[in-house]
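Researcher: Going back to the complex we discussed earlier. I've cleaned up the inputs and rechecked each line, so this should be the final set. Can you rerun the prediction on the complete assembly and write out the structure?
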Amino acid sequence: MKCDEAKELITALVDQELRDPERNALEVHLTECANCRSALENEQALKQAIRRAGQGILAPDRLRDRILSNPSIFPEKGGSASSWWDYILPTAPMLRAALAIVFLLALVLPMFYFFRPAGEPIAFAALQTYDLFLRGELPLHRVGNAKEIEVQLSGAVGGRFHPMGYDLSTMNLRPVAALVQEIQGRKILVAIYEGQGGSLFCYTFLGSEKDVPPNAAKFFDADKKMNLYAFSRDGMNGVFHREGEVICILVSAMPMKELLALAQAKAKPS
Amino acid sequence: MNLGTGVPINDHVAARWTKEEKDTFSREAIVHLDHLYRVARYLVKEPDEAHDLVQETYVRALGSHEQFTPGSNMKAWLSRILYNFFFDHYRQKKRWVLIDDNSKDEEYRSDYWEKVPAENRGPESHLLASELTTKITDALRRIPEEFRLPIVMVDIGDFSYEQAAEILSCPIGTVRSRLSRGRRLLHKHLKDYLGVKKD
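Model: Rerun complete. Updated structure for the full complex:
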């Protein structure tokens, strides 16, 4: 094989689109040709760089709002609230006020102690808590807005980590309550969403992929290079993902496909 | 998946659609907003044009939802609608100005392997990642559309050759050859910024 012939094959190899006969021929050539080996490495590096460049481009909020408020696309405006962080970080005076709220509201935040058999995954406890909620048996402290929830939950763990701040207005869900759950000595921050789209619990806690429940289906997001794990029990669905040392589990009765798509859209690579 | 080059908005069909079905469809479609915007930004020059392109894609997708097969690849389907709309309404108006279409130059025809520096310049030649990202974005916008589109679909959209070929309405072999040539063009623009290697 000549180097000219190898060009397109190298491209296809980089994209994992090369079938066996051509692949074998190219591999033989690569063992003999240092230039083509370098070209392969360069093209792999270029592809990765292009991907990273693309991932840096996100739809602006202005466009998102425009689409969400277009009655031809969404019959009812879903709202345009940004991430919780946008509420909490705009100005220093607001931050000071928020910190004051921490001390006031943390006092009334319900702690929900959940005694589970040792070693049982937190994910299953999450499903059980959600089940209690669906049956109206979960004590809740309802709050007025996302900022309060964020402040309360972060305050409950001394700011060591923060609840995942998701804007779920596109799902017709808004944050309505906060809860801190303690399972086997670990504090779990629970943000509760309700609305026309049903209900959803967002669990945030410190952990690792060892917390993935057994038999969960694993999905790999090639764009974000991260794993998502889907699990179900008694008609309730959960999706687990990790951002650094922070674990997020979304639990809802909505179809798994929708929940998985939501988690995939919201998850941020570590 | 065959949408043709224009997707008509069918109000009668839309009217028969229940609100719940439409909501579900819209929610699933909105998940791909970032992807569609990314593609649009590489198709048209101005951000406002990209906004229009993406919004029109959603309007058309909702108007032709009956053409979508549940369980199939919605991202690819939406991308095809976006590309078709671009092709019909933007490309033919030549609103995208190619800054540097020199694909037929002698320089392009020469072998880029020969241009690989003799030694790895080392980490000092690397720019910060964010700067490289900007350089790559600029370089992508400078190469001819026929080479840029397969790169956008495969490298940024993460589509297979087959899916990219379907979206772009061209043979799979064309996707492969244009990708190869497109990456070489990009390499030419970026060789001073990428850490190139030679054994």
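Model: Worth noting: Chain A has three domains: 3-55, 61-114, 122-266.
Researcher: Good, that matches what I expected from the previous run.
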